[in-house]
Amino acid sequence: MGFGSGVLTGLIAIDGQVFSPEKAAVSAFDRGLLFGDAVFEVMVAFGNKILDLDAHLERLHASAAAIALEIPWSNQELSFEVQSLIDQLSLPKGYVRLMVTRGDGLGLKIRGGERPRRITYCMPAAHEPADLYRDGLALKRMIKEDSSRGAKPKTASYLHTALALKRAATDGFDEILWSNSDGEISEAATANIFFLAREGDLLEIVTPPAQSGILLGITRGTIMRLLQQAKIPVHEQIIFADELPRFDEAFLCSTVRGLVPIHRIDNHRLHSARPQSSFRHVERLFQTWVATEIGHRVDWATGRPTGR
């Protein structure tokens, strides 16, 4: 069973040494453990095919550069390790997490000369409920008190988001939708967001820009490229919270979950989950691209091949 269950299966490599999940361990002085001093990437694999591996490795290096963490391994070395673990497991849908910490150091001060540590997790992806993709999600809007602008590095500090998700669940929501301190919509907990509005035959598809304070998602980039190739207009645009009522549909996108419709943001109801929604056309476009990448169509929730 995967990481969403009580029993963990899969493989974890620490600095190249492979362990079963119950035997994997790092130093108690690891700065990733002590201070969240680490960067990481999450990838998804279907069978032995990892989607967008090169793009994830490029972003890993960009995140590391943003926190002055030098990664001593080449992309070829990292790619080989990830692929070899996935090949050993041969999962219908695999969850891959590649993490690089700054290494050991008890004091908060970064002294330099630390020896980075890499940890690669390859495990069965958690099975999403079927109704997630059929019915969609309800999002609770929250304000993130963060004045920084521009694209965010993918670091290991997610406590604020974890607590926000807990509060949202208590209030009967499935997810959160962050706004920055200026009231601009940014992103969900671990996903980017797209909004759709239709006026007659005109379809508007927009997504928040980097300057609103988002992580530039790999799947977000893929969707924008696919829409542009299909001659469907899509734009990066600052979106304020009071603009939400003008949108008819919205969806989240992330590496492991893929594309998920949104049926409600606070009290604003959306029509994204309907069979004839514009979102379903975008979803089919994405599914066709995935099938081209891995050689067959899949049920995204389970990773099992489908005949459609």
Q: What would your notes on this structure say?
A:
It catalyses: L-isoleucine + 2-oxoglutarate = (S)-3-methyl-2-oxopentanoate + L-glutamate; L-valine + 2-oxoglutarate = 3-methyl-2-oxobutanoate + L-glutamate; L-leucine + 2-oxoglutarate = 4-methyl-2-oxopentanoate + L-glutamate. Pfam families: Aminotran_4. GO terms for molecular function: branched-chain-amino-acid transaminase activity. The structure is a single chain. This protein has 308 residues and is an alpha+beta fold. The chain has two domains: 11-124, Aminotransferase class 4, branched-chain amino acid transferase, N-terminal domain (D-amino Acid Aminotransferase, Chain A, domain 1, 2-Layer Sandwich); 130-294, D-amino Acid Aminotransferase, subunit A, domain 2 (D-amino Acid Aminotransferase, Chain A, domain 2), CATH 3.20.10. 26% of the residues lie in helices and 28% in strands. Strands 7, 8, 9, 10, 11, 12, 13, 14 and 15 form a nine-stranded mixed β-sheet that branches. A six-stranded antiparallel β-sheet has the order 2-1-6-5-3-4. Helix 6 packs across helix 7 (278-294). The protein is globular and about 60 Å long. The mean pLDDT is 93.
